[in-house]
Amino acid sequence: MQLLASRTSPFHRFTLALVLAATAAAAACSGGKEAPSNPAAAKTAATPAKTPASPAAPAPAAPAAAANDAKPAAPALTPASPPAPKPAEEKPAVVASKVTDPAQVPAVRVPPSLATHNPNPPSNDPTAAAAALNPGADKDALNAKAELAKKSVGDPLAQEADPNSKAKLTYEFGSDSKNFGKCMQGDVLTHTFQMQSAGEEDLVIKQAKPTCGCTVAQVSTQAADGSMAPYNFGSPIPVGRKIEITATLHTQNKRGHAASRINIFSNDPRGQSQLGLEADVDPYFQVNPQNLNFNQLSARDTANDKVTITTTKSQPVKLTAALDNVPAGMKVELIPTSPDADGKSAHWELACHLGPNLVEGNLAYTVTLKSDVTIPGGEKLPNGAEPTYEVTVPIMARVTGMISYTPAFVSLGLIRPGQVVSRTVRVTSHDPEFKLTEPKILVQGREGGEWDLASHFSTVIRPVTGENSIDVELRLDGMPESLNGSFSGQLVIQVGHPEKPEIKLPITGVCRGGNTANAAGPAPNPNPSPNPSPTPAPTPPK
């Protein structure tokens, strides 16, 4: 190159420098392609274009340019938009060359930040180029379109109300709520709301959704012949047609003021209309007490209690008790007070007798008392019978054997090797003829027999003052360092009672430490320093 420069004039050397600069710029635009190392080859490759470039597909910048006349050529730069085509005779000396190798065609430069947004932007589309230069706005537009598409195919109730809709769901003022006033518990209350499609375009009801399961809504619309027929949600309702919405309020298990709402979703500009039902519910029966709780009883104990049942309006009724699968040791009796000739009375007593020979465990039984008074508007039962007013009385007790204990198992939780833990089990005798003294205590394996960890436990027995009970303290004096993981065994207390000679309680726990030291983290410092000294930096090797 120095030899070539020495054989040319200063003007040619200047021109050659501009050619080299243009070549470097074109290589940078083409993604780092190397320019030809021979300037003479570049001059040979550059030929003037004889026809104007097509506007639809402008010629890309050439990887090399040459001077064909005495005029100096400026370095080629990548334009923001394709330049307008010019006649061949008006083109500058540096022109696009005819490239036969597609790999040498330089690509339009795209900022790296836009590469993931639009990997193939149309370089000759100004609108796409503007969108590529403003990715935030383009992303917002895409999100808006996606949200619109989601609403169009998703839940119609999620769509926003259209304020420009001319549909209208109307009703008389004050008729959107029905107060039934006083009613009896269990009554089935029904009301029909009268409405109309009164806008300038067809009304479409999407759904009639009650706010609780006690309300059922049925929608009917007026047909062309004036009759009322069930409505299919989503169907258009012509202007002027009547709409009836029948709602039912069930008051079973309700007391006091009961209220419910029905939400009507439609293409009315409001989007949602609301109907209301309410009533003041009085119980048909008064029960005192509400349940019978005998608390704790032993299998040998006996207990008696009763519940009084009266009608709220002192109406004589006949009650029957549904007694199915009564627990062993329980007896229930329903007795009317001053019944009439038909056996009806406004006052009843439910007497319950428990024991002896109750089954050990939790006792829970519910007595259902049914009257002979039919509930107005009630739906027939599955067996075809008419529903009647009824009341339930729960009966509960905790029945223990002659020997009881608490808790039912011994959990040591998460411990570390060497940690001392203790748990206490209380054992009680409910047999006045059997006195608890100092039973024999064993620590065994989970299935009985020897346990390799039994030697790490000790027990202490303490009598409970004023009770026929003892407290058995199980003390863990520390697990070995080699233990890491869960462990289980059992605590055996040999009380010696004829009905329950011994009781067995599982022992469970998890030990973290041993061979995997610090698996549960280091033990906390009981007296941490408020200003701990920083750890000194290690001394670098000499």
What does this structure look like?
- The chain is mainly beta and 542 residues long.
- Helix content is 12%, strand content 36%.
- It has 6 helices and 26 strands.
- The chain has helices at residues 2-6, 10-29, 39-45, 112-115, 126-133, 135-153; strands spanning 169-170, 177-184, 188-197, 203-210, 215-222, 228-230, 236-237, 242-250, 256-266, 272-282, 285-288, 292-298, 303-311, 320-322, 330-336, 347-354, 361-374, 388-400, 403-406, 410-415, 421-429, 440-445, 457-463, 469-476, 485-494, 503-511.
- It has a 5-stranded antiparallel β-sheet, with no helix packed on it.
- A hairpin with a 5-residue loop joins strand 23 and strand 24.
- The longest helix is centred in the first third of the chain and has 20 residues, at 10-29.
- The protein is flat.
- The model is unreliable at 1-8, 27-137, 148-156 and 515-542 (pLDDT under 50).
Fraction in beta strands: 35-45%
Give average pLDDT, whole number: 76
Strand order of the largest sheet: 1-3-8-5-6
Reported for the largest beta sheet, the result is: 5 strands, antiparallel
Please give the radius of gyration in angstroms.
Answer: 47 Å
Low-confidence stretches: 1-8, 27-137, 148-156, 515-542
**Helix residue percentage:** 10-25%
| Quantity of strands, as a count | 26
Shape: flat
